[in-house]
Amino acid sequence: MKKINLKKINFLKKILIKLNRKFGYELIDQNNLILPTSNKDINDNLSTHNQKSISLPLGEVEIKRKVESLLIIFRSFTNENKLLSQNKKRLFEKEKKEYTLRSLNSICKNIVNLKKEINNFKIFLKIIDDNSEKKIINEMENICSKNNIDFEISILDKEKYFDKMKFKDNQRMLAHNSHIFMSKDYAVNSDYDLLYFVEDDYVHEHDALIEMIYSYQRICSQLNEEIVMCPVDYPYLYIKVDPTINLIGFKKYWRQINQSLCTYLISKSTLEKYWNYYEEMFLNNYNPYEKPLHDLYKVIKCFSPMPSLGMHLTNINSIYGLSPLKDWIKVWENNKY
User: Fold this and answer.
1) Which of 4, 76, 160, 169 is 20 to 30 A from 117, alpha carbon to alpha carbon?
2) Hey, what's the torsion of the CAs at 76, 265, 181, 190, to 10 degrees?
3) Which residues are registered as beta bridge partners of 154?
4) C-alpha–C-alpha distance, residues 250 and 206, integer Å
């Protein structure tokens, strides 16, 4: 029997690896699913921020849409235990502050994980609070500080926006719309590329921001256009049978949707370009409230993940509530503060 020269085989293997690296290809050892060109396995992150997105076995997508910074605007309101438009209790039946603080904690955890994943990525957390008690403000500060987050808390100045509203018959909605107006006003005057508007009743998976940033880059690069991303797979969007587009993102599937609520990721350029749609929303009290957003999604694509990256903490029977195929009790418990 002819003796196998292992040294020669290993030498040739090294040469092959170097050649593949030079030409930008990936090799996969089918025996153990290891990529010898990068010393990773197929469950690791094979993508490179602002350079390439790799999804096996689809291959590589060159990143044309580069992202350098993210502004997160978190709107908090803890003085009301009932839902804004419903006389119903929320999931887990806790005080409103519990949902706010767990939602904030989930965002802070995501910021920490994103900063670990992408070096020198500029992230800032802006909290706009609607008249919470001082002790709750202190708790929000503690959550951000213990996670070493760059943040700022501002108090909503409702009167500044009341006169601009095109309706006057609903004091609670006047405050709600002023809250959204202030968040958009702050964002459009910022110097951040991506903007993530978050309501305070959304608890996120620990890798939600990583998935959204990498998937945003990949999908924008594939489509060669800006998009909107909603982090929640809302059950009400499965009631009707609508045509859609399904794309592979970072670790999730993303499907095109034609509606969303008020938690979403967009670019500053999108906010500027389509400002009239957002202004139309926060200056009026439509039914449904998000009608201008739905009109916007006829001219710019909006995507949501499957399965969901976040849990909307509304009533269990609400069509806007629990997304399917997730262990939401675990997510809720993992975000104690």
Assistant:
1) 76
2) 100
3) 128
4) 15
Q: Which helix (H) or strand (E) holds 151?
A: strand 151-155
Has this prediction a pTM greater than 0.85?
A: yes
Residues 6 or more apart whose CB falls under 8 angstroms from that of 177 comprise 161, 165, 282, 283, 285
What residues have CB less than 8 Å from 83, skipping those under 6 apart? 90, 314, 315
Which residues of the chain fall short of a pLDDT of 50?
1-2, 4, 6, 9, 82-83
Mark 252-291 as b/e (b = at least 16 C-beta within 10 Å). bebbbbbbbbbbbbbbbebbeebeebbebbbbebeeebbe
In the block, residue with structure tokens 């949902």:
99
| AA identity, residue 330 | K
Secondary structure letter of residue 195 according to DSSP: E
d(CA 218, CA 212): 10
Please list, residue by residue across 69-97, b when 16 or more beta carbons sit within 10 angstroms of its beta carbon and e when fewer do.
ebbbbbbbbbeeeebeeeeeebbeeeebb
Which residue is listed with tokens 């919470």?
Answer: 132
Using DSSP bridges, classify how beta strands 302-306 and 228-229 pair: parallel, antiparallel or unpaired.
parallel
Q: How far apart are CA 305 and CA 211, in angstroms?
A: 9
Q: Are 178 and 156 in contact (CB under 8 A)?
A: yes
